[in-house]
Amino acid sequence: MKFKSLIVFYALTLLLLAAPARAQDAATVATEGVNHIGLAVTNLDASAAFFTQTLGWRRAGGDLDYPAVFVTDGNAFVTLWQVADPKTAVQFDRRNNVGLHHLAFTVKSLKALHALHAKLQDAEGVRIEFAPEFMGQGPTTHMMIREPSGNRLEFVVPGSRVRAEQGGN
């Protein structure tokens, strides 16, 4: 239960931090949202295939010399960077390392989230950390996975979309 409480805390914190700046604060805000997220991966081909084939994203470029692959869902951009030596790469430990704890993506609907969950159950190299469930008391619903290189990804259906799907306001 402590784990779920932490997730709710982090999710609420992110929602507050991600809220649009009020007009009076706009002059002091130096940034305009996230440009892209860069993830170090142990298997560039498998991770790129996860995003493009499993999630349906498109490849938006790359750099063969780095090597890196750029992918997008039309809103978010993720840069996948191949680590130099996958055999000696140290996997991230979300409880002991400073760094990206997880990356969360918005999903259109509960139906889409459950369809994605079913697809991920058969996806090679994907480990499902938990199946779709309420975030806290709901109705926001989410699931957490590890993509083929081990990065933690969360998929979230906001409560407003859940309520709309269920005919509520």
Please provide a written account of the structure:
With 169 residues, the chain is an alpha/beta fold. It has one domain (2-14, 35-84, 92-165): 2,3-Dihydroxybiphenyl 1,2-Dioxygenase, domain 1 (Roll), CATH 3.10.180. Helices cover 28% and strands 27% of the residues. The chain contains four helices and eight strands. The protein has helices at residues 2-18, 44-54, 110-121, 159-165, and strands at residues 37-41, 58-63, 68-72, 77-82, 103-106, 127-134, 141-146, 152-157. The protein has a four-stranded mixed beta sheet with strand order 1-4-3-2, covered by helices on one side. A four-stranded mixed beta sheet has the order 5-8-7-6. Strand 2 (58-63) and strand 3 (68-72) form a beta hairpin. It is globular, with a radius of gyration of 17 Å. It starts with a helix and ends with a helix. Residues 8-17 have low confidence and may be disordered.
